Amino acid sequence: MAKEIDLYARQKRLAWFLVTPAVFIVLLIVAYPLIQVVYTSFFRAKLDGSVEPKFVGLDNYANILADPDWWSAVRVTLLFTVFSVGIEAALGLGVALVANSKFKGRTLLRVAVLVPWAIPTVVSSQIWRWMFNQIYGVVNVIMVSLHIVPETDKIAWLAAPATALPVIIAVDVWKTTPFMSLLLLAGLQLIPKDLYEAASIDGAGPLKKFFSVTFPLVLPTLLVALIFRTLDALRVFDIFYVMVQGQAGLQTMAVYNQIQLILFGKSGYGSAVSVIILLIIMTFVVLYTRLSKTSFE
Amino acid sequence: MKKQSTKSIALRGLFYLLVVFLLVFNLFPFLWSLYSSFRPSNQLFSSDILPPFSHDGQFDLGYGIANGLTLDHFRSIFADPRFVAALINSIIVSGATVLVALGLGSICAYALGRLPFRFKGPVLYLVLTMTMFPQIAVLSGLFMMLQTLGLFNTQPGLILTYLIFTMPFTIWVMTQYFRSLPKELEEAAYVDGASPLKVFWEILLPLTMPGLVSTGLLAFIAAWNEFLFALTFMITEPMKTVPVVISQFSGVDPRQFPWGEIMAASMVVTVPLVILVLIFQYRIVEGLTAGAVKG
User: Fold this and answer.
1) At A180, which CATH number?
2) Which of B74, B188, B214, B289 would bridge with B283, disulfide CB 3.0–4.6 Å?
3) B24, B49, B73: which is the final residue of a domain?
4) Which pLDDT score is estimated for A294?
5) Do A235 and B293 touch (CB under 8 A)?
6) Non-local CB neighbours of A20 within 8 Å, separated by 6+ positions
7) Is A183 among the domain residues?
8) Are residues B19 and B116 in the same domain?
């Protein structure tokens, strides 16, 4: 008995000893900078310290909300998020359904699906930038040879928001649908097989089976995946930064933030932008942890 | 009866058409860039898509391959000290990030998954929230912190910031892993008088090896691909990592945009990853889904 109590005490002591370093590091690299960001957001300050920081209250926030470039960034981010996540969910579910059925070459498909996911985002952005190059890009060359566009009037895909945004969304869809379909596939495989057998006995066709068995049961996984992806899409940076390089009218919230902060060195203003982005994203995080019904004990 | 089978054959054909479309959609951009990385510049910058197969008015496969493919772009990037330095930086930073994240993360996960600990709930909640944390939100704070610590524009500094996205993920997945092991495993050892640390080291850790491999691989990929922090915190040429250099490639000839070199560099940093992913595909899928579906 004494030995058991002794073991329990030792385990408890060890637990403290093992958790502390990780928690310390997380506090150092998240909590400390975060406090710094919130604090700095109330000052007019430069990143290189060239001017004396001056307390300005909520001025930075007011200036952000009055900046049309910020609202353009919000609009671009929302458009990107709604379309990329929407298309990814629909395609991902399709791929998951295909990959979940038995057929020859199923392993090949599952492997092929992982390739875009493994490619660094910067690299996939460059690959697509090359494919959509105005003069030599394979897309324009094929369109010319199919007589969809004339040789003399090739499309400058990435020059204007109206064509650049769809291309950028396509890159994200290409890169992230695999992730979506893997999550959904895991959800599909949790559905008990006898439910389908029961539906067959009741004379349900494939469509009926999808809408009364598959879809309702995969819905919780789909919701979690949707929020997960929305969080990712709202903070999108790499694709836009590489493909259109901070071009006006094609900045996302994160690109706008990075440019204000690093390029212009406005640490007070930039920190206020960070706080706003954080508030938006944390709303979704809370939603996610509620919906996913994760147990923490 | 007959009508039924024609219909099912048609459906089957449609299904395989869909599979082929998915394969092409997934693989084409990768294969196209692989092909572009081997094409000579004069053909890269022309309206021809295919290698020059026709020679003296005849189809000639050998001629096409000999004249349509070249190693020039690969030679040129490996002769470029910026790219070589970036490759070495990326390997050091990603490797060290994985070691630190796995080392500290897995012992923390053991405590959270296996030992009595009063603040288990709050710590796990914190960890899960951290896995979804937007990196951009602490960019200026980290910038100032690294400068105060004298770690700005250094490898240890970048490694430290990379723990933001690798460590919470490692702790979360490994905690689930430790939880899933049966309780009887350690009970026998405790009866024999083993210490909790010995139980961890000799019994549980070897059993979680598969989990360590998959989380380690995912952490490596995440660190290898990271762009925002590397772009912001590594500003001098010899300190830059591969994604930053690839995004800023200006090439040898300033008058021409070096698409051949960019594609070659892209393939050098991507092909090893793709091979790793193909080898460990089951482990990766397991790790990815453990992070989001279970719980």
Assistant:
1) 1.10.3720.10
2) B214
3) B73
4) 56
5) no
6) none
7) yes
8) no
Contact A8 B278 (CB under 8 A): no
Q: Is residue A66 included in any domain, yes or no?
A: yes
For residues B144 and A34, give the distance between their C-alpha atoms in angstroms, rounded to a whole number: 11
The CATH number of the domain holding residue B97 is 1.10.3720.10
Do B98 and B173 lie in one domain? The reply is yes
Q: Looking at the domain assignment, is residue A20 inside a domain?
A: no
Instruction: Report the pLDDT value the prediction gives residue B164, as an integer from 0 to 100.
Output: 93
Rounded Cα–Cα distance for residues A158 and A161 (Å): 7
Is the same domain home to B87 and B132?
A: yes
Rg (CA), chain A: 25
**Which amino acid does the sequence have at A223?**
L
Q: Each residue of B117-160: pLDDT tens digit?
A: 888 888 888 888 887 788 899 999 999 999 999 999 999 999 99
Q: How many domains does chain B have?
A: 2
SS3 B59: strand
pLDDT at A243: 93
- What average pLDDT does chain A have? 88
Same domain for B61 and B90?
A: no
Tell whether B273 and B171 lie within a shared domain: yes
Give residue B293's pLDDT band: very low, low, confident or very high (50, 70, 90): very low
Q: How many domains is chain A partitioned into structurally?
A: 1
pLDDT tens profile A44-56: 999 888 888 999 9
Indicate whether B197 and B247 sit together in one domain: yes
Q: Which of A18, A130, A178 sits opposite B259 (nearest CB)?
A: A130
Note which residues in 40-99 of chain A have CB less than 8 A from chain B.
40, 47, 95, 98
**Could you say which of B21, B55, B73 is where a domain stops?**
B73
Which chain A residues contact residue B125 at CB under 8 A? 289, 296
| Parent domain of B208 | 78-292
Which residues span the domain enclosing A69? 41-291
Is A182's Cβ below 8 Å from some Cβ in B? yes
Whether residues B95 and B172 fall in one domain: yes
Asked if residue B287 and residue B211 are part of one domain, the reply reads yes
Of all residues in chain A, the one with the smallest CA distance to B259 is: A130
CB B51 within 8 A of CB B43: yes
The first and second tokens of residue B83, run together, are 């790219």
HEC-encoded secondary structure of chain A = CHHHHHHHHHHHHHHHHHHHHHHHHHHHHHHHHHHHHHHHCCEECECCCCCCCEECCCHHHHHHHCCHHHHHHHHHHHHHHHHHHHHHHHHHHHHHHHHHCCCCCHHHHHHHHHHHHHCCHHHHHHHHHHHCCCCCCHHHHHHHHCCCCCHHHCCCCCCCHHHHHHHHHHHHHHHHHHHHHHHHHHHHCCCCHHHHHHHHHCCCCHHHHHHHHHHHHHHHHHHHHHHHHHHHHHCCCHHHHHHHCCCCCCCCHHHHHHHHHHHCCEHHHHHHHHHHHHHHHHHHHHHHHHHCCCCCC
Backbone angles phi, psi at B150, to 5 degrees: 70, 25
Instruction: Decide if A15 is inside a domain.
Output: no
